[in-house]
Amino acid sequence: MTVQSSVYPWDISVEKREGKIILDCDENRVLTYTTISENATLAPDEKDHGINGAKKLSWEATMSNHYFGQQALLSDANYVLGPEPKFKLPANKVRPRKGYIYKAWDMGSGMKLCVRCQVDSYVKEEKSAEAEEEKKTKKEASEKKEISLVNLRAANEFYETKRQMTWKQALENNRSLVTSEISINDSTKLTKWTIEALLAGVENIRIAYLARRKINDNRKHNIIEIARYTTKELKNLINLNYEVSWGILKMIIQALHDQEDGSYYLVKDPNKLIIRPVSYTHLRAHETVLDLVCRLLLEKKKKKKK
């Protein structure tokens, strides 16, 4: 649903059996990693293998999001989003400190969609209200505790050589500079976070602005500030057209529906804004999915020349 703004190539595993299409993404896929300044004019260099290269920055951002999401939670808090699962986790597995909601949509044309959505946390909003049944001589007040779902995210500062001021300086002087920089340079990431929240029905998003303690150390960070957004506010900030995102998803599902039963990779072209399904049978030994796409494109060009 964020394919319009994505720059880096990615792939998703697809299984099509008896009219059912299952899309899945392994932990080590590009889509599971959080990027930094993916949409910037001076984006991180993909060929740079240092800590300021695209690959190491992506690892840094992913770890930052994971640890911030865990540290911001209360250790003794518990809230059940729905019925308890019937299965039990193995003894060597730890229950994840996050929630999952399964939601279904009717997309028309006989297509129904089921999505596993993630929820990071919740907050209790206390509101005072007069009791409904009041005594004639005395009025009693009661407290209502409402649950509000919250997703926790972290945005890492990208250390460009031409930067005039750091995030810390900008937040002290002009907060809009940081907000504007993130909404432009990280539009893919913000779009992804917003759509995740909209699908799960999450009302609020907390974004921590992180800066390295030392410029040459990508493992230790300081939290400069935690910004609070409602999902609607973030949607308006990045000018997200939610209806268009659903239209893109429907076109992708329709394209997969026209394929024969089998196993595929849904691959974003590394050079163009094109998504294509590629069968597992084309994959050679020791060949990655992106290698496969490049090889198929070269073979296609050779056929045209002949």
Q: What structural category arises from helix and sheet content?
A: alpha+beta
Radius of gyration: 23 Å
Main pleated sheet:
4 strands, antiparallel
Order of helices and strands: EEHEEEEHHHEEHHEEH
Number of strands: 10
Major sheet strand order: 2-1-9-10
Q: Which overall shape is indicated by the principal axes computed on the Cα atoms?
A: globular
- Mean pLDDT level: 79
Distance N to C terminus: 38 Å
Helix content: 25-40%
Low-confidence stretches: 128-133, 135-144
**Helix tally?**
7
Main traits of this protein?
single chain; 306 residues; alpha+beta; 4-stranded antiparallel β-sheet; 4-stranded mixed β-sheet; 7 helices; 29% helix; 29% strand
